[in-house]
Amino acid sequence: MNKEEFLNIIANGLSDFPASERSEILYDYEQRFSTGLSQGKTEQEIINELGDPHSIVKHYIDTYSTRFRKKGSYEDTNYQSNTSVKSKSTGFWVLAIILLLILSPVILGVGFGILGLVVAFVAICFAIGVVGVGFIVSGLLGFNQIISHFSNVDINIPGSAQVLLGIGSICLCILLIIGMIFVIKGSLFLIKQIINFFR
User: Fold this and answer.
1) What is the pLDDT along the chain (199 residues), one digit of tens a residue?
2) Among 88, 103, 166, residue whose Cα is nearest residue 133
3) Cα separation of 103 and 63, whole Å?
4) CA–CA dist 83, 96 (Å, integer)
5) Of 81, 89, 85, which Cα lies nearest the Cα of 198?
6) What pTM was estimated for this model as a whole?
């Protein structure tokens, strides 16, 4: 194979390319031949360095088809739809930010109110748990007389009843915590669904 045959294979393989691109590719390979010949290489040595012309054609066709897919009507349609989705999403967030700024006093008030309720609820759960532990310890160790002595309150609850009250209080604390977790998860899920609906 000589230079002319090599270039003809490339030219024929790229016949579907736009003329300007095909000319640019052929010119590049002619320059490579000129450079190689000026360095004292033979045409066959240059062809061996460049590789199989059929593989070169396949590479250019694969590259060109990828570029065409990116620029072609199918990708353009997807690009336009993606752009419209992005613009809708951007519009949604701009509107959401404006509404947040306008309604920020109300939102902050409600938010801090809810946060206060959650903190109070956690404190109540903690208190019930501590009371439960206190009942169990008092029932097991018999602190009734000591408490009665210091508080001037007569406690006539049997130790076994105090232990049962303590276990019940701890179970109530656990149930309240589980319920709070489910309420928080449900609220977050509902907020997420509302945001996705308005997107």
Assistant:
1) 888 888 889 888 888 888 888 888 889 989 988 898 898 988 888 888 888 888 888 888 888 777 655 554 444 444 444 444 445 567 777 887 888 788 778 877 888 888 888 889 889 989 988 888 887 887 787 766 666 655 555 567 777 787 888 899 899 989 988 988 888 888 888 878 877 776 5
2) 166
3) 53
4) 20
5) 89
6) 0.42
Integer Cα distance of 130 and 142 in angstroms: 17
> What is the length of the chain?
199
Give the residue among 36, 38, 10 at the shortest CA–CA distance from 23.
10
Structure-block tokens of residue 171: 């179970």
- Structure tokens that stand for 124 in this block: 């109540």
Pair of tokens at residue 126: 């903690």
> What residue spans define the domains of the chain?
3-71, 103-198
As given in the structure block, the two tokens for residue 174 are: 């656990």
- How far is residue 28 CA from its own chain's centroid? 45
Q: Which residue has the tokens 């915590």?
A: 177
